[in-house]
Fold this protein.
Amino acid sequence: MQKIKQLMVVLSLSTVAVLYAAERASNPFVKHMFTADPTARVWADGRLYVYPSTDIKGKGYRAMDGYHVFSTDDMITWTDHGEILHSRDVEWSGGPGAMWAPDCVYKDGLYYFYFPHTNTNKEWEVGVATSKNPAADFKVQGKVKGGTTFCDPCVFIDDDGQAYLYGVVSKKTYAAKLKDNMMEIDGEMVLQSELYDHREGPFVFKRDGIYYLIYPDNTKGGHQMRYAMSGSPLGPWESKGIILEKTSALTTHGSVVKYKGQWYLFYHNADLSGGKSTNRSICFDELFFNDDGTIKMVQQSPSVLP
Ligand code: FUB
């Protein structure tokens, strides 16, 4: 009898362990290829989609040449929907590679995929591809018109339907309204000057009427993720501090999303490649707010490698 009781305790403990382990996928949550710069979005079908850039095994940032989309409905099982866009699909492309951190938003029946890519003069342009499907059938419609050449686009659509575009020029974020066609800058791109030690990769979201802008800083040996808060999508911003310590990758870049009642930070590290800065992997961890709306430091869950 005693043995049966012991066995039951062991069984129930291992069941708990399995359930706990199954609460979420381990980091990095994509292990069959290298991925970076994840933008996470929740769409009307109830799934969470992630739009990252693709790192190529053994090659550097200039070799990044296409985009996959991943999705989940439980934070455990992730579907790779395959490649949705490649540099060969881009008429104004300056050649293969240099397809950097993208974003995707939804407006009036269309998904708009924004991707930075270099043109024949080796200048950054932000291309726009659209589809009725969040994870397939994207067709390049052209590039964002207006502003200067920039990379790392982020598009934020406010509650009133107005879209804003953020992008990086020489380590600074500039921002402007987007026209209704989602492809033209309305007015001038304005420097968001208050972002302390800003480097690249802005991502804007809104919670309880407060606008947040997260961004990587310039810390040597591994950038940290910082954030700023504002009462307006175009600032002025109040720099608040660090939400993610450096990871095993040199760069950091990510997004914040609420899914099924929980906020998450998506980011990348380089654990899967043994620390190679240009072979990164996308991760997520839970993000929590203080009562005053400030963000608590995100705890990086340890990588589980294949
Ligand atoms: O992934 C290529 C570039 O590295 C991104 O555009 C930057 O934000 C940095 O993560």
The radius of gyration is 20 Å. The longest helix spans residues 2-21.
